[in-house]
């Protein structure tokens, strides 16, 4: 059994472990540009110095050795033969079955978007925010925070980290005695941003913004960014620093996968994780577009669940059985605020929030627990 896995993020690495646990004899080839994992959930702590970049960059050589896999350091450029051939910058790679966990990418179409910084682009972006804040510490200034979705697939967004960054910086600046030097503004095209977290969560978020002297600019389409302004159809929002998370779309090579993509540019999948139009090919995480409720999240926890489903079904299919495992759909996250946290839980039956100071420490403990399997 020759299985290829694309990516080295949450979905791909979970798929590796799931395949290896079930099929010790399988040949696994993993394709990714680097031999490391970046722990994105903790990027929110780099701007305040709670984390350094090297703490969130995990070399994977030892993990790859334990998993007995072959790593191909390359960029994927497309698929052919119903997914049996993966085209890469290092040559073609053949497989009996394929799991795509390469993640998505941020949309960069808004004019002037280079004037903004997207936290989740990685460690360098988080360090850039840290350095800009350090330069503003004595003089203060106006910071605009915002996020948007994919116009053709509105759920393709990553707004949670922006709420964490916003409230985390607010609490940190208050503890440092410098918050009065800064003006915070929050903008989003949605009238009620964060709706996938549930109505109660949105109400609490907007209430907290009001209590924390954070002005809101909601419900108007973004037009462009300027060096010191966010321009919407309704107004111009002046800012010295713009922190913005664009909407997401599929991987750059998706249009060379030989399938019709979703309206938002993602690889289309069914409830089993199978890529529509391809054989023995599955997708997990941010590369795919999946059936489910409108609040279906794009987050690490969901990527892990999708990866387990993909691995289980692919192994079943390659073993001559009918794939039957459906992905459990749930949103679970701790919204961190630098010194406290809020647990948000949502599935198809429940939706609740629990604010608790110790959740801040729980999020840090989870980081250690999660990463130890790869160190």
Helix content: 25-40%
- What is the CATH H-level superfamily of the largest domain? FAD/NAD(P)-binding domain
Alpha plus pi helix count: 8
Shape: globular
User: What is the subunit organization of this protein?
Assistant: single chain
User: Uncertain spans, ≥5 residues at pLDDT below 50?
Assistant: none
Provide a descriptive summary of the structure in words.
There is one protein chain. The chain is of the alpha/beta class. It has 2 domains: 2-104 and 250-318, 3-Layer(bba) Sandwich (FAD/NAD(P)-binding domain), CATH 3.50.50; 109-247, FAD/NAD(P)-binding domain. The protein is built from 8 helices and 25 strands. It has helices at 10-22, 53-56, 61-66, 123-136, 160-176, 199-211, 300-318, 359-371, and strands at residues 2-6, 27-32, 36-38, 57-59, 70-73, 76-80, 85-88, 91-94, 97-100, 105-106, 116-117, 141-147, 182-188, 214-218, 222-226, 229-232, 236-238, 241-245, 248-249, 267-268, 281-283, 288-289, 330-336, 341-347, 351-356. Strands 5-2-1-9-21 form a 5-stranded parallel sheet, covered by helices on one side. The protein has a 5-stranded parallel sheet with strand order 11-18-12-13-14. The chain has a 3-stranded antiparallel sheet with strand order 6-7-8, with no helix packed on it. A hairpin with a 2-residue loop joins strand 7 and strand 8. Helix 1 (10-22) packs parallel to helix 7 (300-318). It is globular.
């Amino acid at each position: 059994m020759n299985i290829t896995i694309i990516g080295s993020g949450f979905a791909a690495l979970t798929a590796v472990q799931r395949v290896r646990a079930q099929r010790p004899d399988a040949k696994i080839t993993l394709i990714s540009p680097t031999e490391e994992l970046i722990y994105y959930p903790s990027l929110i702590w780099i701007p305040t110095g709670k984390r350094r970049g090297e703490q969130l960059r995990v070399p994977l050589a030892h993990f790859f050795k334990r998993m007995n896999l072959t790593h191909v350091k390359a960029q994927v450029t497309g698929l052919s033969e119903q997914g049996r051939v993966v085209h890469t910058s290092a040559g073609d790679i053949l497989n009996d079955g394929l799991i795509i966990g390469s993640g998505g990418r941020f949309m960069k179409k808004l004019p002037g978007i280079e004037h903004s910084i997207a936290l989740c682009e990685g460690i360098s972006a988080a360090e850039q925010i840290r350095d800009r804040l350090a330069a503003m510490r004595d003089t203060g200034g106006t910071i605009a925070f915002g996020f948007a979705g994919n116009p053709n697939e509105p759920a393709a967004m990553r707004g949670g980290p922006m709420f964490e960054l916003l409230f985390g910086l607010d609490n940190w600046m208050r503890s440092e005695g410098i918050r009065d030097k800064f003006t915070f503004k929050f903008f989003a095209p949605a009238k009620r941003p964060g709706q996938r977290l549930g109505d109660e969560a949105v109400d609490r978020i907007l209430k907290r913004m009001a209590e924390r002297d954070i002005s809101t600019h909601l419900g108007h389409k973004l037009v462009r960014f300027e060096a010191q302004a966010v321009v919407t159809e309704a107004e111009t929002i002046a800012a010295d620093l713009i922190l913005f998370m664009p909407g997401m779309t599929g991987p750059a090579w998706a249009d060379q996968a030989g399938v019709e993509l979703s309206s938002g540019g993602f690889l289309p999948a069914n409830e089993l994780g199978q890529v529509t139009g391809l054989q023995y090919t599955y997708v997990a995480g941010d590369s795919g577009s999946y059936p489910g409720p409108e609040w279906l999240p794009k987050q690490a926890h969901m990527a892990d669940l999708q990866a387990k489903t993909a691995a289980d079904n692919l192994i079943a299919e390659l073993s001559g059985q009918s794939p039957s495992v459906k992905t459990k759909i749930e949103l679970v996250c701790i919204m961190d605020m630098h010194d406290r946290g809020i647990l948000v839980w949502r599935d198809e039956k429940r939706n609740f929030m629990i604010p608790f100071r110790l959740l801040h420490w729980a999020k840090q403990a989870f980081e250690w627990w999660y990463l130890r399997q790869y160190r």
